[in-house]
């Protein structure tokens, strides 16, 4: 879990992914020589802060977004949400502006719900703030801010160790409206002819999806993936014997939303571990579900 701890500690809210991109490129450079297949690394200004790794003769692409939720400093000690973070008075926030490091406290007005901060000085407008990371690990679980989606990134990196044929994509902006997956999907479709995807993200513990019972295969959220593709994934999962659950929701979304709204005929399915305390500093994921997620991705990428 040391890699996951490091990923959770790196601040990279939507729009400010560059530090995590730099970490990932360095990690890939150092670790790839030990991977089973050496990938083509596609990155740079034409792809903003996104990264594409191409292994062998790919048939399927895995999309894992690297950004997180957070807050932007406005005026007069006001804060504006990045994405949809939970907000409670007392949450610890961290960041940095030209005057130095910041460790402040989130405030929520009891009457209006307006967000602000308590700090020894005014923070420069436009500064991004994120939850302070308190990574906790037990025999059964991990708990931290930003397991959504640093755990998906962790899963994708671990998948790279044994992946022979496939594409792994690290995308940006998912938590705040998207915007990168469309051009990434276009490039992948036109360059490699790949048009089926797995969305490597974290979902919710609900009344129908329980912690410790395996990662979730989502049959739908606010959008509906093509049923014939999802049924192929379900069949592979059943035959593998790996614990998993089926998710049905009427709201929420992921990188799959941009794939479905794009101009290319992409098939997609969300496959990810469920977490409790979503979008708080205390997101909680069961280790059995982490194990299930990685094992299932390895099998799916071999057989899809």
UniProtKB/TrEMBL annotation:
One Pfam match: Peptidase_M42
Cross-referenced SUPFAM superfamilies: Zn-dependent exopeptidases
Annotated protein name in UniProt: M20/M25/M40 family metallo-hydrolase
Organism: Hymenobacter busanensis
């Amino acid at each position: 879990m040391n890699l996951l701890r490091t990923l959770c500690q790196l601040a990279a809210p939507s729009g400010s992914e560059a530090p995590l991109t730099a970490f990932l490129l360095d990690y890939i450079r150092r670790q790839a020589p030990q991977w089973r297949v050496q990938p083509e690394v596609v990155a740079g200004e034409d792809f903003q802060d996104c990264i594409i790794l191409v292994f062998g003769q790919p048939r399927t692409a895995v999309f894992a977004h690297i950004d997180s939720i957070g807050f932007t400093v406005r005026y007069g000690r006001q804060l504006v949400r990045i994405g949809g973070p939970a907000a409670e008075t007392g949450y610890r926030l961290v960041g940095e502006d030209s005057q130095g490091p910041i460790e402040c406290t989130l405030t929520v007005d009891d009457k209006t719900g307006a967000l602000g901060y308590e700090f020894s000085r005014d923070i420069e407008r436009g500064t991004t703030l994120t939850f302070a990371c308190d990574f906790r690990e037990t025999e059964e679980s991990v708990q931290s801010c930003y397991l959504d989606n640093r755990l998906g990134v962790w899963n994708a990196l671990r998948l790279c160790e044994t992946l022979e044929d496939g594409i792994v994509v690290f995308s940006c902006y998912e938590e705040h409206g998207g915007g990168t997956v469309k051009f990434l999907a276009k490039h992948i479709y036109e360059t490699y002819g790949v048009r089926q995807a797995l969305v490597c993200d974290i979902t919710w513990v609900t009344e129908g999806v329980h912690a410790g019972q395996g990662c979730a295969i989502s049959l739908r959220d606010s959008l509906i993936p093509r049923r014939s593709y999802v049924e192929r994934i379900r069949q592979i999962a059943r035959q593998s014997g790996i614990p998993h659950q089926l998710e049905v929701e009427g709201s929420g979304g992921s990188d799959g939303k941009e794939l479905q709204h794009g101009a290319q005929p992409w098939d997609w399915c969300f496959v990810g571990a469920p977490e409790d305390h979503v979008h708080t500093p205390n997101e909680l994921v069961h280790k059995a579900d982490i194990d299930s997620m990685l094992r299932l991705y390895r099998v799916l990428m071999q057989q899809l």
